[in-house]
Amino acid sequence: MQILIIEDEKQMAALLKKGLEEEGHSVTLAFDGQEGLEIARTYPFDAIVLDVMLPRVDGFQVARRLRDCRNHTPILMLTARDAVPDIVKGLDSGADDYLTKPFSFVEFLARLRAVARRGDQPRPLRIQVCDLVLDPATHEVYRADRPVHLTRTEFRLLECLMRRAGKTVERNALIEAVWGFDQEVESNTLDAFVSLVRGKVDRGHETKLLHTVRGIGFCLCENLEE
Ligand code: CA
C-alpha cells in the first residue's frame, strides 16, 4: 500500500514509517497539516495516517478539507488521549477510525488495514446499530424504519453513544461531549436526558439498545455483556 503519514513528532513518524516499510508498504511523511494536505491532494494514497495535533493546519481541518474536495482516501486518525469530544469531532470531520496514543504497532497495522479496505469511495456517514440508524448530516434518526424525533440535545447524546456503540461511555465523558467542557451539568440532568432518549428509541421495541452500566455510564448495543 501507498501510505501518507501526517505527524509532526518526527520520532513517532520515523518509527511508523520503518514498521510499515518492513511490512512491504511505501510511506510518505509530512510534518505539518498544510504540507500533508498538499501531498494528499497531489498524489494518490491507499490510506492516510493523520495526527490531530499538528502545526499550521490541525488534523480535523485536514480531514474536513480533503472530504470537502471529494478526496475519500481512508483516514486513520491519531488522538493524544481518549477524549470523547476529540473522537466525535474526528469522525465528524471525515476520519474513518481513530487510535489513541500510545498504541501498539500491531494494533496500528490492524486498524490501518481495516480502514484501507474501505477504498476511496465516498462513504455514507450514517451510523447504524441493530435497526437504529442515525444520519449526522440530516439529523434524522430511524428505529425499524420509523422516524424518531429528538431534540438537539437528545440527538447529540444519542450520536455520542452510537459512535461508540458497544463501548461504555462514562458519565463525565458523555456530559462533556453533549454539553461541552465549560457547562456545569448536574448528574441528574444527564439521567433525565438519557431516560428521554431511551423512551424514544427503545419504547415499544423488544430489543433494548440503550443500557445503563451501573456506577460508570451508558452503553448503546444490542446485547450488554454483564
Ligand atoms: Ca502532534
Q: What does this molecule look like?
A:
With 226 residues, the protein is α/β, with parallel strands linked by helices. It folds into two domains: 2-117, Response regulator (Rossmann fold), CATH 3.40.50; 127-220, Arc Repressor Mutant, subunit A. It has helices at residues 10-22, 33-42, 59-68, 84-92, 105-116, 152-163, 171-179, 187-202, and strands at 2-6, 26-30, 47-51, 75-79, 97-100, 127-129, 132-135, 140-143, 146-148, 168-170, 210-213, 217-220. The longest helix has 16 residues, at 187-202. The structure holds calcium ion (CA). Calcium ion (CA) is lined by residues 8-9, 51, 53-54.
Annotate the secondary structure layout.
Elements: E1 2-6, H1 10-22, E2 26-30, H2 33-42, E3 47-51, H3 59-68, E4 75-79, H4 84-92, E5 97-100, H5 105-116, E6 127-129, E7 132-135, E8 140-143, E9 146-148, H6 152-163, E10 168-170, H7 171-179, H8 187-202, E11 210-213, E12 217-220
Helix pairs in contact: 2-3, 6-7, 6-8
